[in-house]
Amino acid sequence: MRTESIRERFGLAMLELGRRYPRVVVVTGDLMYPTQVHHFAQAYPDRFYDVGIAEQNMIGVAAGMATCGKIPFVCSYANFTALRACEQIRNDICYTNLNVKIAGLSSGLTYGVGGPTHQSYEDLATMRSMANMTVVVPADANAAEAAVFAAYEHDGPVFLRLGRGPEPVVYDRDASFTIGRACQLREGQDVSIIANGPMVYEALSAAEHLEKAGIDCRVYDMHTLKPLDLDSLRSAGLETNLIVTVEEHYIIGGLGSAVLEGLNELGVSTPVMRIGIPDLFPIIGPTNELRAHYGLCADNIVRNVKAALSSI
Amino acid sequence: MGKLDLDGLSQAARLIRIEVCRMFGRVGQGHFGGALSCADIVAALYFHELRLRPEEPDWPERDRFIMSKGHGAPSHYIALGEKGFFPKEWWEQYEKLGAALNTHPNMLKIPGVDFSAGSLGHGLSVGVGMALAARQDKRSYRTYVLLGDGECNEGSVWEAAMCAAHYHLDNLVAIVDRNYLMVDGCTEQVMGLEPLEQKWNAFGWCTEVIDGHDLEAILNAFDNARKHAAGPYAIIANTVKGKGVSFMEGRREWHGNEITPEELTQALRELEGTA
Q1: Is the same domain home to A73 and A128?
Q2: What pTM was estimated for this model as a whole?
Q3: Would an 8 Å CB–CB cutoff place A63 in contact with chain B?
Q4: What gap in Å lies between CA B238 and CA B37, rounded to an integer?
Q5: Would you say residue A174 lies in a domain?
Q6: Cis peptide before A116, with omega less than 30 degrees from 0?
Q7: Which of A195, B33, B106, B229 has its CB 3.0 to 4.6 Å from that of A203, i.e. a possible disulfide?
Q8: What ipTM score was computed for the predicted complex, to two decimals?
């Protein structure tokens, strides 16, 4: 298993984005180094703004610049944007439908030892509830890089949910990435596992294990949480007997919720099992141990799929 | 319409107050207090100070204006209508279902509105962004943000104030409509702001306190702001909430209130000078 740092690739992607597109500006709130946009800052100092530890202002400044034709990328942590500056994102960026991209790093449990103040499992619930917002959750470093460019090409607000340290590599570097279109990474007839972010790798590992047990799983990377790819969801619902969602977010309001809502809209009644963070503040610990503790791992997906299939 | 002289501005401010009251009168209620307190400032901006092209509302070189105290928008609507940004008939549609003109301004629906507002404490940050963009693009337009004094309770105002001074934004002007009243009462009783000028000073702004109903003082302050090349400029404009209507002036309950036809008649008589 090869891993690559999400934030290192994000920082390099931002550097390349800045080289290609002069309208891109970066706004951060004292997180230039943690989000790795110091590369951008060094190369394009006249297009880089560090507004200090003031997230509400950070979003407003980006909105003001967007009205003047800039394409601001706000680079910060997921919870410091989606929660701390939630209303600024709603009123100043979504209501106004401005071309601002928000990169929320350190999402989910990726800063596990930081504890709930620095973890983020409500961000997708808040961001996907906002009209005009597009929400993207890349699976690995290659997808994160592709998502940066896809976000630039997309006209309108985008929330780009990113992790932090090394994560397993799922995609080739030249894999295509289209906002709004899920990637089916594995064929299968029995079960559909729908995941996003780093849980895509866990879903693929689980599918391999389940194959040995005679259970045929397909795997979707639902990297765009909003707008949800209803075509892929319809196929998953109609062509397999069980849908399992896996996400590094509360099971309230994230991918599992979106899938349930989507199936309901489609009138498809395939059983759904949601794997995610339960309705509590997690304990503190290293990311991978913490993920395992809350069942965000291949082993737990395997256990749950077997149990669910036996009860259908 | 070129720049108006002081007499013309005085007439424009009076017209704003009259049309605001008529607009509120048609729907039976409105935020009278704050719309009337800022009428002279809005008149000075739109009929003298701002560089605009009503026929080209998105002209890139235009000066920017943000009504950060969004409930003051009705005064802005009258100025924009008078300038020709949209037909004055829009005033008749105020607050009707699906109308462009509402209690708070929507930039996507109203030509000449540079930013949406309503929730307080947002506008100055947006103004900082506009001023930074102007500098980056080497454009000469200036950005004016009108804040309510109660709005200065919001922490985000001071985040933005700090930021504007840090970046030495000499193309940014904040005007505080200092009418001393907010929804729940006197600003100093609800949440004290004083010493307000010193606060802006301490945050790195050049400040000036003026009578916000003295049009000559307002124009002088704008001139002083333009000459000040060292950073952002804050004009604290002392005003009277509900200015121009005797039974509204200085009265907390007229922040936002229903109005009877009799009260409306009385208000218009006073404003038209026929009382």
Answers
A1: yes
A2: 0.97
A3: yes
A4: 9
A5: no
A6: no
A7: A195
A8: 0.96
CA distances from A269 to A188, A252, A259, A266, B207 (A): 19, 20, 11, 9, 65
Percent helix, strand and coil across chain B, each to the nearest 5? 45, 15, 40
**Interface contact flag, A61 B108, Cβ < 8 Å:** no
Which secondary structure element, helix H or strand E, spans residue A3, and what is its range?
A: strand A3-5
Q: Which of B68, B120, B163, B172 to mutate to test the interface with A (most CBs of A within 10 A)?
A: B163
The radius of gyration of chain B's CA atoms, rounded to the nearest angstrom, is 17
Band of residue B1 on the pLDDT scale cut at 50, 70, 90: low
Strand pairing category for B185-186 and B181-182: antiparallel
Best of B107, B113, B137, B159 to substitute, by most chain A Cβ atoms within 10 angstroms, is: B159
> Given an 8 Å threshold on Cβ–Cβ distance, is B130 in contact with A68?
yes
Give A68's contacts in chain B (Cβ within 8 Å): 60, 129-130, 133-134, 137
Does any domain span residue A178? no
Q: Report the residue from A47, A57, A97 with minimal CB separation from B159.
A: A57
In CATH, the architecture of B6-272 is: 3-Layer(aba) Sandwich (3.40)
* N-to-C CA span, chain A: 34
**Amino acid, res. A173:** R
- Output Rg (C-alpha) for chain A, integer angstroms: 19
Digit-coded pLDDT (tens) for A121-150: 999 999 999 999 999 999 999 999 999 999
Please choose, from the candidates A229, A274, A227, A272, the residue with its C-alpha nearest in 3D space to the C-alpha of residue A247.
Answer: A274
Question: How many beta carbons lie within 10 A of that of residue A197, not counting itself?
Answer: 33
Distance CA B189, CA A208 (A): 67
Instruction: Provide the number of CB pairs (under 8 Å) joining chain A to chain B.
Output: 102
